[in-house]
Amino acid sequence: MQTKTIQPIHVLCFETRTSLKEILQYVRVEARRLYRDAVRNDLEITGPVYWIYQGADGQADTVFTLTIALPVTPPTHTINSPYQLKQLEAFECVSEDLYGNWDGLSNTYGSLFGEIMSRKLVPSGQNREIYLNMDFENPERNITEVQIGIVK
């Protein structure tokens, strides 16, 4: 686990209100649409897809804001997109990489929140998952960076 500051990132993104119980409808759907839309609008993709959870507490029924974001270079031209361009602000966080199946996400979050509590840090209410490598056929090859926001 490490503590770090993520610098602002310009993204093309999808936002919605959802719950963990309803979130599967966006998996393998919105990210693909974001990639297609970025290419169609001649945007330069500059990083992997982010899933950002604002207000999620791990409970299946809690409604929170989900942002699925694709880093892009700010365009110099007008784009025609159902998605929004925005800048993610600087983000203070503790992070840990998960290598393998996403079934391990709960353990990774547990480890990070345990460390936050032991170090008496204050969670910001925003968590991010950065999908560095996604392999749906061989999930043991997945690499996911989990970031939990902290108040500085």
UniProtKB/TrEMBL annotation:
Question: Which branch of life, at top level?
Answer: Bacteria
The AraC effector-binding domain sits at 1-151
Protein name as it appears in the record: Transcription activator, effector binding
